[in-house]
Amino acid sequence: MKLKRKIFFILLGGLLSLVILEAGMRMAGGVSLILQRYRNMRSFSGKDKVIILCLGESTTVWGGKKSWPSQLQEILNKKKGEGKFIVINEGRHAISTSYIVSMLDELLDRYKPDVVITMMGINDDPTRVSYGGGSTTEKSLLWNLKVFRLMKLICRHFNWKIKGPELEEKREPAECRKPGYFLKLAREKRSRGEYKEAEDILRAGVELFPENGNLFFELGKYLKDEGKYAEAENNFIKGLQREPLNEWAYLELAQCYLDDDRYEEAVSVIENALAHGFNSENVYLSLGKCYLEMGDFSGAYEIFRKGLVVNPGSRELYFQIGLLCDRRKDYAAAADMFRKAVKANPTHPIAYIELGNCYEKQQAEDAKKKLIRKLESLGLNEERLLSFLGMHYFKKGMYKEAEYYFDKANSLRMKNYPIYTRHNYCKVKEILDERGITWVCVQYPMRSLDYLKKFFDSTEGVVFVDNEDIFKEAVKKGGYEDYFDDCFAGDFGHGTSRGNRLLAENIADTLFKEVFFGE
Question: What homologous superfamily is domain 49-128+418-514 in, according to CATH?
Answer without folding.
Answer: SGNH hydrolase (3.40.50.1110)
